[in-house]
Give the backbone structure.
Amino acid sequence: MKPTKVTLTFDDGSAPIDLPIVSGNLGASVIDIRQLGKHGIFTYDPGFLSTASCSSEITYIDGDEGLLYYRGYPIQQLAEHCDFLEVSYLLMHGELPNQAQKETFVGTINRHTMLHDQLNNIFRGFRRDAHPMAVMVGVVGSMSAFYNDSMDVRDPKVREVAAYRLLAKVPTVAAWSYKYNLGQPFMYPQKRYNFAENFMHMMFATPTEDYEPNPVLAKAFDRILILHADHEQNASTSTVRLAGSSGANPFACVAAGIASLWGPAHGGANEATLKMLEEIGDVSRIGEYIKRAKDKTDSFRLMGFGHRVYRNMDPRAAIMRETCHQVLDEMGLNDDPMFKLALKLEQIALEDEYFVSKQLYPNVDFYSGIVMRAMGIPNSMFTAIFALARTAGWVAQWNEMLSDPEARIGRPRQLYTGAPRREFVSLDKR
Ligand code: CMC
């Protein structure tokens, strides 16, 4: 039998407090501590290692078993049989679409892919060498000023249109941030392509010649999107929820999510992985870097290894690993020194006692970085691509939060460790 309550007792004779234990459909139960505040007690959990910040029906992860489900479907099945827009529909609406629903959804997303024409001017305000993520934070945030009819977030219909706009337009913003870096003309989205092909077209085509996306690469790219579409209450998703809990508009919330994703411990890991591989430079230097990663006095970490939740192989990494080999074969890159180095590093880390004992497996971003590089996508775009995939999850989670009658403005408490009350000292006496 599962316990249904826990009693908190105090060593100073205060009355005990009964707290209910709530079980979800899968995974760990939670102690419902909401009433503690009334008793003047708060819990302390920096980094939310033991705290569920919300209830959610969208994504389930079992880090010990290496399981990831979107709306109950194992990620392997979705990656095998669906495309990214079907998965996005599933995340947003809770069910896989039937044929008619899929056609309508794809048509709707295709209709929303263009940006307001004046947004071109916002791009042009950035330095040419601006990082694509900096441009994305700015441009997506500035969309708040262009789509005034997406501001009333209490209206479910408005939320739906805002979600579609974000899913459709963020890829255009990402691709244009790259084109702007290059100084090439922006390529407008094309309805004749599927979602992945359209993004490749906006990234790689130019007005001067025809462009045909390679189907193996388009499929690999679509898979990257599926695998990154949602991942329960990670840092950026929690950021979107927290920003949205105040009633902030969806573009501002997703811009906040993009900002959070940018960090190297989160979405920036794929870019950081490639930078690290470039720094290592040669198979002969792997040992030196492994040694540094193990050294407690050195802040260096092996990028693309480890995960907060997975203490087993990240199921996304296993799928991406397979895709990685397909893409390297397709591009004839199996003998490329950089990819050889990556695969050697993977092998050594998988066998090394330190990494094995700490269950630090290569994560999805280790392989997705390699795949994207093989596709000709520059390192600086990796996190931007993660962001366009994760937009599907962000808008689904944001909408779920705003539809939840239990949702309140997010307002964590703190353990104050600063100075106690003291008297002001005037400037001449300090
Ligand atoms: N290289 C070397 N040692 C590591 C690494 C690493 N990549 N990751 C964790 N460790 C060690 C860490 O030093 C600690 O050792 P000890 O117990 O002796 O103090 C132990 O493993 C546990 O690490 P932690 O910092 O408590 O784990 P965490 O859950 O706080 O951090 C992480 C998770 C992903 C931030 C971390 O593993 C890391 O920095 N990895 C590299 C960055 C990376 O690849 N991030 C992508 C995550 S996947 C994409 C996403 O979902 O956002």
Summary: The two ends are 64 Å apart (CA to CA). Residues 231, 234, 265-267, 269, 293, 301-308, 358, 360, 363, 365 surround carboxymethyl coenzyme *A (CB under 6 Å).
